[in-house]
Amino acid sequence: MKATEMATSIHDSFSFQEERRRQATAAAERRMQASDSRGMKDPEGYKKKVEKRERLEREAEDRERAQGGARDGDGLRVSQF
After folding, report:
1. What is the pTM (predicted TM-score) of this model?
2. Given a cut of 60, is residue 73 above it in pLDDT?
3. Residue 72 scores a pLDDT above 80
4. Could you give the CA distance from residue 38 to residue 53 in angstroms, rounded to a whole number?
5. DSSP string, the chain
6. By the 8 A CB rule, do 71 and 65 touch?
7. CA distance to 27, 43, 56, 58, per residue, from 30 (Å)
8. What contacts 68, CB < 8 A, 6 or more positions away?
């Protein structure tokens, strides 16, 4: 086997391996999406609801901090003398 043939063969081998990696990655992503949505009618809607609830909770905590002054971790007011 000549050097150019070896180089071509090695290049083809790397190309094949790279293509297999891409295919495996795509298959893994499809499996993750399928498992995330298994048993749900609207997985995107569920994600949006969860994100909205978390955002509203953060906003409520921020408002509480702004209105109530300093509070300790249990939600009790801390008096500062």
Report:
1. 0.38
2. no
3. no
4. 22
5. --HHHHHHHHHHHHHHHHHHHHHHHHHHHHHHHHHHHTT-S-HHHHHHHHHHHHHHHHHHHHHHHHHH--B-TTS-B----
6. yes
7. 5, 14, 31, 32
8. 77
Locate 20 and state its tokens: 């297999």
Q: Which two tokens stand for residue 12?
A: 């083809």
Residue with tokens 């955002």: 55
Report the distance separating Cα 16 and Cα 76, nearest Å. 63
**In Å, what is the CA distance from 39 to each residue of 27, 34, 36, 43, 46?**
20, 10, 9, 9, 12
> What amino acid is encoded at 28 in this protein?
A
